[in-house]
Amino acid sequence: MADGGRPPGQPRVVLGVSGGIAAYKAVEVCRRLVDAGVHVVPVLTRAATRFVGEATFSALASEPVQRSLWDEASPIPHTRLGQQADLVLVAPATADLIGRYAAGLASDLLTATLLATRAPVVLCPAMHTEMWEHPAVQENLRTLGRRGVRVVPPGEGRLAGGDSGAGRLADPATIAAVALEILGVRGEAAGVDLAGHLDLAGHLDLAGRRVVVSAGGTREPLDPVRYLGNRSSGKQGHALAEAAARRGADVTLVTASSLPLSTASPVRRVAVGSAAEMEEALAAVAPQADVVVMAAAVADFRPKAPSDRKLVKEDGVPEVVLEPTPDILAGLATRRPAGQVLVGFAAETHDVLARGWAKLERKGVDLLVVNDVTAPGAGFEHDTNQVVILERGGRVTEVPLRSKDAVADVVFDRVIARLSEGGEERKRP
Ligand code: CTP
């Protein structure tokens, strides 16, 4: 037997419980993990003990509840707990706990354990809707997300005090399934639909990388109320940004789309309108990036002299003279730092591959994601896409019709392969 009567190889989870009304549901999470063969060490904050009895956890878990940093038998319990854990799971995670963890405070056994561990950490927030939506809480979660902490987002439903809304702790079965998935344990995970949560257990193979993604169709003003635009929805670009963040990257999304990001997304969003604004925003962030993905549909032409007052019918039909916009991607390619991977997109309607290879050369990119926008289910406004990824050096990856999220993951699989190749080819002119 290993420590605490634990068989060798048995996964060990520190189950942190902070003080919210949902603390009682952590009992169910604990039971499911123990039933699946996991060694569970419950760590309760002082406030948690006001909501749920220590005796309940001590009876169900693999070890008695731990609460204090000042346990006489073990003078540094947090280091031992943190070092020995295969996973630290906090359910429920209150706004206070999230804030202290984001700030790097170690004021009780649970936060000290969180700081002392190198194991994966999963937070399951639960709180009132107003608190969940507060910018301080969201910012703290973004900070933690950038550090690789995973979040099982709360659902909507009845909250304490008869209120209803977002902030209700995720279902205990889902929380247990996410934990088991990360630990690589089946058991209870079987039969639970992990769709939408599996990615939380994904690899953090972009941790420590800075990724910049552009998205959406630019809007080129004709006058203060009208613009020339295109049919790009921004869905693929947003999916790319979220995929990179899920995989641990620090992500900036420069977007001309008004699509929302998922709740508690750690992605930093920079909103732009025209090609000129997009160029300026990218110039500020691209030089520091390891990866730049230019998924935006940038207008190729813009009105040469947009009117600064609304064009009205009395003035007659306006004659609009167009001028070319800057080729943002080609500009980024000429100024890119050594080692940066640059990805372009191409929307084509004919001669897809031939035009794709020519565009990859012309734009000076490493990867070109070519989209046949006439294919059923692919391209503008759809939730699905079908692409071919062309790579400098000749490699071709065909991605059949699938969700834009899944396409995003294939793009980053190829980006990561090129990052790890060390960029020898990229140094070629
Ligand atoms: N792009 C850009 N700046 C522009 C036009 C396009 O940065 N002014 C980028 C797009 O974001 C995309 C890539 O270039 O990553 C290819 O876009 P696409 O519209 O297919 O190519 P164009 O250069 O416009 O070529 P064409 O219209 O002749 O196909």
Structure description:
The chain has helices at 25-35, 48-51, 54-60, 77-84, 95-102, 109-116, 129-133, 135-146, 172-183, 235-246, 275-285, 328-335, 352-363, 404-421, and strands spanning 12-17, 39-44, 87-93, 121-125, 150-151, 155-158, 164-168, 210-215, 220-223, 226-228, 250-255, 268-271, 291-294, 301-303, 322-324, 341-348, 367-372, 384-391, 396-403. It is α/β, with parallel strands linked by helices and 429 residues long. It folds into 2 domains: 10-200, Flavin prenyltransferase-like (Rossmann fold); 210-426, Rossmann fold, CATH 3.40.50. The strands form 5 sheets. It has an 8-stranded mixed sheet with strand order 12-11-8-13-16-17-18-19, with helices on both faces. It has a 5-stranded parallel sheet with strand order 2-1-3-4-5, with helices on both faces. Helix 5 (95-102) packs across helix 8 and helix 10 (235-246) crosses helix 14. The relative contact order is 0.08. Residues 187-203 and 423-429 have low confidence and may be disordered. Cytidine-5'-triphosphate binds next to helix 12 and strand 16.
Tags for this model:
binds cytidine-5'-triphosphate; Rossmann fold; 429 residues; 32% helix; eight-stranded mixed sheet; five-stranded parallel sheet; elongated; alpha/beta; disordered C terminus; 19 strands
